[in-house]
Amino acid sequence: MIEGTPVWFGPAERPLFGWVHAPADGRSDGAVVLCPPLARELTSAHFTYRVLARTVARSGLTAVRFDYVGTGDSSGRDDDPDRVGAWLRSVGEAVALARRTGAERVALVGMRMGALLALHAATSTPVAAAVLWDPCPSGRRFLKEQRSMYLVQYGVAETVDRAGPSGPVDPSGPVDLPGYRYTAETARQLVELAAASPDAPAPERLLVLTRRGRQPASGLASGVPPSRVDWEEVDGQEELLEVEPLHQRLPTGTVERIAGWLRDALPPAPHPVTVPTRREAVMAGDDGTRVVERAVTLGPLGLFGIETEPAETDRRGPTVLMLTAGNDWHAGPNRLWVVLARRWAGFGVRSLRFDASGIGDSPVGPGQKERVVRAPEAFDDVAAAAMAAEPGDPGNVVMLGLCSGGYQAFESALRLRPRAVLSVNPVLRFTPPEAATGPVDPRRRIHIPVGTFGRAVRRGGPVTLHRLVRAIGWWLANHLGGRRVPAMWLGELVADGVDVLCICGEHEGRQILEGRRRAIDRLAGTGRLRVDVVPGLDHALMPFEQRRAVTETLTRHLADRLLGPAPREQTAVGR
Length: 575
Known about the structure:
Elements: E1 5-9, E2 16-21, E3 27-28, E4 31-35, H1 40-58, E5 62-66, H2 83-100, E6 106-111, H3 113-121, E7 129-133, H4 139-153, H5 157-163, E8 175-177, E9 180-182, H6 184-191, E10 205-211, E11 229-234, H7 237-241, H8 252-265, E12 271-272, E13 280-284, E14 290-298, E15 303-310, E16 319-322, H9 336-345, E17 351-354, H10 377-389, E18 397-402, H11 404-416, E19 420-424, H12 453-458, H13 465-480, H14 486-495, E20 499-504, H15 506-513, H16 517-524, E21 529-533, H17 544-562
């Protein structure tokens, strides 16, 4: 089962989404509100916050984690006005939610910009304690650091050389960060956000955790007596926030330290916990339309997902299944699944964005490890989601995915025969995780193996004649099997009436085409296959203009190809 209780809360016109994690015995000594970072750091820290919430709950405290308005699953958009003010009000709403659980004493935990927002929110929402985890010294510094990363990554390092990481941030126009674009107003508000005033109310106790060797910003502990402030250094933030998600290491030691400190800061005051149960919200979509979102659980394992559908118009077409990419959560790459779900609901499309088992907010299956990318259990997860989305016809779905999600959409489509596949930058060449301890799952038909014959022989222990024969068979099947040629399995999908759109950069495009452009062109001539190879397309769609262009292509394709009567001859699942 999922950990915690998903809940919508806050103003009816701008609902917020969050989770309440209560102690197992239903009694608590207080509550802790977890204020997440911003932008790409929010995605990087999402699972760590889930681990922190369950650790806090095990210690006897209630944990509340949430998304600020305009982030994650909460209502709102990137171009909303007064975003920083709205984020501060979101913290206040989360504290009010924590108090409604029955807690009299509430603490705040904030990482990076979440620490700065928590500190400012505490000036108007009295709290008993606060933890500032790797705090940004100011909004200006946060923008400079993120902007520098963006400029270096996308080939304009000379701009960084001139300005330096402490150079100017121009708030006269939109500011691009990795995966996000802030309006000029949002950038100006962040530039003005610094450590709290010494005259402002402050938490009763404070723990400041800084990276080793990094000088903490002045003003972070203003108003708190020195005897009530703990200053400590921690490791692991670089491995959490500054690496590719596939290579992240969770800072479990820091999580345990924070939970222990909070246990000491909130003395025993046992009370029964009241957990709100609001699982549905109505919010504004694009063009003034309204959409309904619901927290749902899927299949026998209870995978977590968010269902989005129109509130005022009739449903049209199939249900869109939005698959997770890598270790990202169900909000999608740079919140893209949220944006698309609410936009598509405006013209009648229902969607379901969900986390695979062991990823995001979904439980882990028996014998499965958490956060395993491309786990073989994903086959079961997608099938369970399809059955839950369309019980009468689980083939009447559209599978949407990026990166590993794009790969899984194709693999699952060969078994489930959906209405359509929308795949962005699918990665086909990789080593399946199960190959480290045994044979590759036989359901894998299209991945392109990475490795040598020698590795196949050595896998799994001493070489015996039996293992040598098996290794030869494995290597031949994986490297010489014609069914792995994309033109072959794409042909199968097209022949079965599956509509396929693949958008990819040049690297991923080479894996799809594999020197068989003529065969792909013949399949495209049927009208059921489209492969768009976009020069310079970033794999994770970090640049705003690329993300917008892909969004438009997906939306036009969905509207033009998939919102009429189903042009298919069969709806059977699997083969």
